[in-house]
Amino acid sequence: MKKAIKRGIVFALICCIAVAFTACGGKNGSGNIFKIGVLQLATHDALDAAYQGFVDGLQEAGLKMDVDFSIDYQNAQGEKSNCQTIAAKFVNDKVDLVLAIATPAAQAMASETNKIPILVTAVTDPADSKLVLSNSKSGTNVAGTSDLTPVKDQLKLLKEIFPKAENVAVLYNSGEPNSVFQMKLAKEAAPDFGLTVIDASVSQSSEIQSVVESVVGKADVLYAPTDNMVASGMATVSLIAKEAKIPVIVGEEGMLNNGGLATYGINYYDLGKLTSTQAVEVIRNDAKVADMPILYLTDFELLINKKVADDLKIEIPKSLLDKAKLVEE
Questions:
Q1: pTM, two decimal places
Q2: Cβ–Cβ contacts within 10 Å for residue 128, how many?
Q3: Which residues is 248 bridged to in the sheet?
Q4: Which residues contact 322 (CB under 8 A, 6 or more apart)?
Q5: CA nearest to 72, candidates 58, 86, 59, 62
Q6: Do domains 33-147+269-296 and 151-265+301-327 have the same CATH topology?
Q7: Domain-wise residue ranges, the chain
Q8: Phi/psi of residue 199, nearest 5 degrees
């Protein structure tokens, strides 16, 4: 009888250890559900896609929502002050990990804590934005993915579609580091294609209409790189550009779906999924983000909005049509 009792006790202990070990796969050190705070700068197609890709990536890795992890999703509605408030909330709530979507969201979160792991996405150059010491190895509590698009290739695309174009107006938010960085790249690349850059900067969304109107008659083509403010205001941009018959080359697919003509860029859903791979390492293996690199997508896709091309009576070269994915609004 005593032997049977001992065997029963040993079996029960083994079961308890097994259950505890299994729970570690998706729990934090205290055994609770792993708490993820999500701080998204604004609502638009690219950022929404990055968030969805992140969540789907976690679940495809075998982690279960509300079992292994929970998400407190907060949207700052494009306001930097809201980013700071949400960041402070996450620190106060003692979340285990933060996903910061877009540079202002990432900078607000990083300014609030140097202890909570932060993964960023939709940030063009984290090192340039002072979020990491190096893009090859973070050295801080921040890691994640970059949405750096091939600016030079996008200008090359512009020139292939419009070989006679000479003046390109670059529409960007002068207050967003991502956008300023891309404007710099555009200025450096433009002479290679015989293009002169017209600075069409905005500092708030209410300026978009007047700035776009100001380049009518001056610019042959409008170029809008990945920019959160411009992406959110693409309906206004495309309306004015269409009336003035100025085509818009854009930085990503979401902007294309809202009136852009063509892009050569990344898929933000895939970018979110790529970010989730680092989150899985943090959740399951307690990996240190300071040792992680910034990750990049290497596949770029040529996309052309056929409806916009038809509306503006633009003839796309067959060499581009043959390799492009055609989309319609």
A1: 0.85
A2: 16
A3: 222
A4: none
A5: 86
A6: yes
A7: 33-147+269-296, 151-265+301-327
A8: -75, 115
CATH for the stretch 151-265+301-327: 3.40.50.2300
Strands 262-265 and 301-305: antiparallel
Asked if 168 contacts 161 with a C-beta cutoff of 8 angstroms, the reply is: no
User: What is the rounded distance in angstroms from the CA atom of residue 203 to the CA atom of residue 227?
Assistant: 12
Q: In the CATH scheme, what architecture does the domain 33-147+269-296 have? A: 3-Layer(aba) Sandwich (3.40)
d(CA 294, CA 78): 24
CB atoms inside a 10 Å sphere around CB 160 = 14
State whether residue 259 is helix, strand or coil: coil
Along the chain (329 residues), what's the average pLDDT of each consecutive run of 10 residues?
45 41 49 93 95 98 97 97 98 98 97 98 95 98 96 97 98 93 97 98 96 97 96 95 96 92 94 98 98 95 95 96 88
In the numeric block, which tokens belong to residue 271? Answer: 């970018």
Cα 290 to Cα 152: distance, rounded to the nearest angstrom? 31
CA distance 285 to 96: 13
